[in-house]
Amino acid sequence: MASGVHRYYQIARCFRDEDLRADRQPEFTQLDLEMSFANKEDVQKVVQKVVQTVWKEVVGQRFYTFEKNGKLRQITEEESFTELSYDDAISRFGIDKPDLRSSLEIFNASGYATSVENTDFPIFELLVLRDGLEKEGLLKAVSNSKDYSSRVPTVISIKSEADLSLWHEKLKSRVQFFDLAGLNQALDLKIGDIVLASDRRVKNYENPTPLGKARQIAISETLSKSLYTREVTEGSDPITSQDFVGTWVTDFPLFNPVELESTDDCKYPTYVDGKFVSTHHPFTMAKLEDYEHLKEDPLQVRGQHYDLVVNGVELGGGSTRVHDVELQQYIFENILQIPNPDVLFGHLLTAFSTGCPPHAGLAIGFDRMTAMLSRTDSIRDVIAFPKTITGADPMIGSPSKSTVNQLKDYHIRVI
Fold it and tell me: Domains in the chain, start-ordered, CATH in brackets?
């Protein structure tokens, strides 16, 4: 962009040193774009057209999108996906990439009770799984501690009239109830329901939260059985597990606090005061209305970042970029406290100093998109030579050990 290229579109081969998951590999492909004199809306318009056209031509399906009334609506290729803010996504679904095919939503019980187990995590919230399910399998699935990275939600099965009156007793040492009658009325529990309870911070940095993870597990157990499928607007076909829901998630925090490595017996994440990391990457532009917080309170700053989420998967992520050299240097040095940023990013800062237009971009995970279109959960199924969990390629035996003579030319030796 600084060199005068107005915009580019490329299929980029990427290599990243990151943990392997079903949707991640150290070697993968992106459909990447960058546009000068563009903003979020410009990028979204291009990306939506590409994605919707691909879906129509490959699988012959239209997208659904998430309406403000909580229902889904089928849209044409000319229509835009709706937006969901990060705070709303965390509050309602416990994760920044929610699967919106399911109607399961987290209930924020702050108006009726507060969590007192950890004062940094005062938000008391509930996820209610209603009657009509194969109870034992679901109850076992959401209770498995191995599926949670931190604390496991309290799981309460409502099996009798007594449980309806006393379900809260299991929580009384950790939760202060100040309007139990109102909470019971709001929840309207019935015999057969399963109640999951947990807590979180007001300004949340867990992703997913304990209930967000529980919701994911519950969806995996129920969606294929057509349970908890979300309502659709008039004129739209009923949603099934084979359909696709797309939405933009926006207004992410620009920075997160640095998290301390937790010990095995620590249920709550702890953070280092005054230390920050970029939520996505250090080149994301701050929202202009939050600009004043950069100096005194960086955690209050939202970024001009936007993720395209489809069926609980981040299909692509992008942002409006920083293009001002002084702002970029300030973020490097004063907020992220990167030592010697000129050494690491000197080429970027030099380019910005010559004059760089405002620009924005996004990259679609090509392998993720291919997996989704192929209806598989793992990108390993659509990559010709996927890597193992150690990052090795068993087909060609790569990486192999370097010989002494090979290393000698680079003045390197193994010790």
Answer: 102-228 (3.30.1360), 253-302+324-355 (no CATH)
